[in-house]
Every structure is written in C-alpha cells, then in structure tokens.
Amino acid sequence: MPEVTYREAIRQALRWQLQNDERVFLMGEDIGAYGGSYAVTRGFLDEFGPKRVKDTPIAESVIVGAGIGAAMTGLKPMVELMTINFSLLAIDQIVNNASKLHYMSNGQINVPIVIRMAGGGGSQLGAQHSHSLESWYAHVPGLKVAAPATPYDAKGLLMTAFDDENPVIFIEHTALYTSKGEVPEEPYRVPFGKADLMREGTDVTLIGYGGSVWQCSRAAQKLEAEGITADVLNLRTLSPLDREAILASVRKTNRAIVVEDDWEFGGFGGEIAAIIQEHAFDDLDGPVMRCSGADLPTPYNGALEQAVLPQEADIVRLVKEMV
Amino acid sequence: MSSIVGRKPTTTRGEGGPDPIALLATMMQIRRFEEKAAEMYARGKIKGFLHLYIGQEAIATGAIAALRPDDYIVTHYREHGHALARGLEPGRIMAELFGRETGVTGGRGGSMHLFDAAKSFMGGYAIVAGHMPLACGIALGEQYKGTDRIAVNFLGDGAVNEGEFHEALNLAQVWKLPVLFICENNLYGMGTDVRRVSAVIEVYKRAQAYAMPAEQVDGMDVLAVHKAVERMADHARSGQGPAFLEMICYRFRGHSMADAEPYREKAQIEVWKRFDPIKQLKDRLLASGALDDGRFEQMQEEADAVANEAARFAEESPNPPLESLHDFLFKESGDA
C-alpha cells in the first residue's frame, strides 16, 4: 500500500469526488489560483476549471451560506474555510441554517454540504490562529463532526462525508498535513461513529481525536517501556460518537484519560467523562481525567505555547498517578 | 386536504399584464388571513411570535405574481403573505401557526419558518439577513445547473446594516448570480426608526454601491411593484447578474403581537393608512369601472370564508405525535 501524506490523502478524496460526481464543486478562499492555504487543492483549478473550483471573496458567512443554498438545490458543495478560526465568522450559517433546515422544514429540505477547516495549535501562529473548537460544533444537533488523525482516516472519512445527506464539519489538524501513512489508491469509506482502537493494553484507556491521538500513542509507547499498557482510542468522529467503543475499553482497563488540544473548561473531554461515569461508573478504579489545553489564549512564544498544549509527558505523569 | 381549495399562484406573467382584480383578491385574502391570525393569537390558539404583514400586502402580492412559479422564494419571518401569494394552502399555513401536524412544516417550524419546497418556497428565516447568503447559494445552484430559474430574496430594512447583507450583495454581483433582492423598507427595524441607525437611509443606494441595478419603488402600489419586479426579474434571469429593489412601505400593526408601539405616533399610522394598498387599488378600480361595490363585497366575503375555513381547519387538526420528536434531525442516506 502506498505511503502518502495526510494532505495527499485529502487531495485524493477531493479529486475522486470531482471526477466522479458532477454535483460536487469546491469553494473557498484561495483554493484556486493560490492552491489552498495548506496546498490541499493545488492544481485543481487547472484540472477541473473555475466552475468546479471557485475562489471566493474573504467573506466566510456568505461562503458557507452560499454552499448551504447550493446544497438545498441538490448539489454537493465542499466549502473550505481555510482555518477553524475563520469559521467563527460563519457560525450563524452553520448553526442557524445548516444544522436546522432538515428538521425545521419537516424533512422537506436537506443540506449535503462538507465544510472543511484546519484547526489546532502548536505552530506559533498566535492566539487568533491556534484554536481547537471541535466541541463547539459537536455540541450542535444536526451537525456531524469528523476529526481525522491519520492519512487513512482522512481519505476514508472525507469520502464518507461526501456520501452523507447532512452537513459535515471536517476538521483537519494543521500539524498533521505532512505526516505519512498507508493509504489505498482506490476509493474506500471509513464510517462515521466507529472509533479505531489503535493500540491495545490493559491498564488505562487514552482517548483522543485529530492531533491528540499522536500524543496518546507516544505516551503509550513510553509507558510500555515501564510496564504499563494502554488502549489508545482514536475517535475519528466526535459526532456521531462511538460511545460503545469508549465504554468497552473503559470496562476493560477501568481507567480513562481524555486528551485534547482544546480548552478544558466546558470541553469535549468533560462530555466523554460524563458519558463514562453515567454508563460505566462501577467499572472505574478512579476518576476519569482530562489532559487538555490550558484555559488561556494561545501565546506566541514557543515555550509558552507548548506549556499551554497537552504534552505526552503530561499524559505519562497522569497515568502514573492513576495506576 | 379538507374543504379548502388550494389557491393557485397568482402568476400573471406573459398574460398581457397583471390582472388587477386577481392582485386585489390576493391582497384582501392576505389581509383577512392576518386579521384572523391576530384573533387566534388573542384567543391563545397561536403561541410564540406572530409578525403580521398588514399594510405590506402589495409587495408579496405584486412581486410573486410577476415571477414564474418555479422561481425560488427565500424570505424573512414576516412571511405569511409571501406564502399565501405563492399559493401555499391557507389552511396548512394557519395550521402551522397553530403548531399542528397538518401545518406546512408539521408544527416544527411555526410562524417564522414556513416551507414548501415543492412550490419553490424555500423558507421564512428569523435571523435578520442570515437568509441572504442562502438565496445567493440557491441562485448559484441554478446557475451551476444551467437553468433559468432565479432566486428572489425578501428582506427587511433591518437587514441592511448586517454584514451578511454586504457579503451577499458582493458575492451575487462578483459571480453574476441570478438573484433578485427585494428590501421591504417599512421604516422601522423592530421599533427603531431607520434614520436613527442607518448612515445612508436610501437602501437602494447601498445596492448601487455593488454595481447592480437598484431602484426605489412605491411598495404601497401593487401595480408599481409588479412592474418593477417583472423588469428586474428579467434582468436576473438574463445572466447579467443580480438586481435590487427597495420597496417603501409601512406596516399598520406592531412589529409583533407583543409590540405596544411606544416608538411611533398614532397619527403617523393614520397618515399612512391613506396609502393602504388595498384601498388604493380598490379606489382606482372603482373609478375606472373595472370593479363595482357588489363585486368588492363578494371578494370580501370570499376572503372571509377562506380565513375562517383556514382557522377551522387548523383548530380541528391534530398536534404532531410526540413519537415524531426525533424525526428529521438527520436525513438518512437513501431516504427519498
């Protein structure tokens, strides 16, 4: 199986969609002539032309709203918002329109749109360009939220997103675009709501999504050298959420840590902890812990930024305190 | 469904000009429907917000009559008149205001969210200007598919200071989208006089700043509305890009049923009532001999009957079953 980057895996899914479904078109800021802020769509304008690959004004609300409107006419737009930070300018469209139209119209209208955005910190981009706001979208009924951690998942989840008849928020992690992994050349689907147990152990469950999966993995490797083994659960999608996989793992290991770049207060880690205590309280040997980003704006300075983000050393320390 | 006869859309395109009697009948039916809705609200049958269209009937009536039945309508939350003018069944609209299963959105939408996708009525929206990007997108979808359908986007004067107004107008013009924006300028954004909050009070000038044809129209004159919309719809349909109409109008009732109207003088309302769109057209038709008092009485009785029947139908309709609560959160792949 060829080894490709996370970026290339996403490109493969987008190209396949453009080649095989006339209803699919892409729109976003600098996705055409510039080739995409993260070079995901480089060359697409030449290959598919301006009808299928549309450069937009810097106007996030109308970019997303126009995508929703086009989806209402039976097309399958893919809107790229460059980064999750800019999605805040489109949140009215996402929350008030995309997520509600099927329900509010009593099933008359649906919104098959894919909204891609890059998220996550760690690149010294400062407080306004380093957000991890996945939980905000996962909070909204009517949206599906995918956050791939591997090239294989990135391609397979994006293919599934295009099959979906509903709005999908597709969050890529900026630090992963150059990471590599095995990806089949042919199209395939990774289903939503099915977590991937990437590593198996007996002492603790480490739960992550997107970039934090790799912190979990590296921490698990270190712990193994010290005789502690961990389940590493890659959620793949936050909504729908694979509750069964989480609970099954916790029932085996009796301990869990949720790892996420996002702020701790009111975050997704708290939701997972609540689900575990509601459904597997008697299986727990101790409280579910969170290893999250500090509740601060992300500072620019490299050392300060790393101190804000959860590190594998933090996970290792937490696990040792628990077992 | 019930004994209510589904009203035909009053499209008058390509028939040698609009039929003023049909336009008058539509306006009268909207007026009666809204008065009946107010009565039902007072009796506690309708809950939540209720924004009446009384005074502005000429706009929805004249505009929608000038469109093709397959042209999309994307509108604001004061939209009962638009739904009636497009030919949605009065009984099913009233049932929606009552929150009943037989309503146009099965009791899920309510007064502000009427939908009938089969009639290209793509919804009433309750976030000011938030629906404008959707109208652009619907127009984009038809442009992409190569059809000659247009999207018509009704908005209020309150929308023009929102960022989404400007984003939508700019994109529509940059991409030459087949969309016609119709701003119903009733001079008040809820209770705030436009002069207090707008740097430029002539709304059409803002659209001109985006290099699209934009005009101001007497929104109390249904024939003027019809004429302007027919012309601007042709422009939008021609592939030359969007167009914009500012309709000057006045609502005779409060912003919603909860509005005690402390912000405007009763005398001002009385002045505007001289320009009542129904009265204006009626007087004109009586003077020309196209209408007589007997016929007008009969039209009034018909409008009464439709409104009464709508209320009866709504009242007798069941509530949506609680078991349906979770339906339509997501569309399953493979669903029709």
Q: In the CATH classification, which architecture of the largest domain in chain A applies? A: 3-Layer(aba) Sandwich
Total number of distinct structural domains of chain B: 1
Helix content of chain A: 25-40%
Q: What CATH first level of chain B would be assigned?
A: Alpha Beta
> How would the global form of chain A be characterised?
globular
What's the number of structural domains of chain A? Answer: 2
Strand order of the largest sheet of chain B: 2-1-3-4-8-7
CATH superfamily of the largest domain in chain A: Thiamin diphosphate (ThDP)-binding fold, Pyr/PP domains
> Tally the helices of chain A: what do you get?
12
Unreliable stretches covering 5 or more consecutive residues of chain B: 1-9
Helix content of chain B: 40-55%
**How large, in whole angstroms, is the Cα Rg of chain B?**
19 Å
CATH architecture level-2 label of chain B: 3-Layer(aba) Sandwich
| Secondary-structure class of chain B | alpha/beta
Greatest interface (CB-CB under 8 A), with counts per chain = A-B, 42 and 47 residues
Corresponding CATH superfamily of chain B: Thiamin diphosphate (ThDP)-binding fold, Pyr/PP domains
Through-space gap between termini of chain B: 22 Å
Query: What's the CATH topology label of chain B?
Result: Rossmann fold
**Helix/strand-derived class of chain A?**
alpha/beta
Task: Please compute the radius of gyration of chain A using only Cα atoms.
Answer: 19 Å
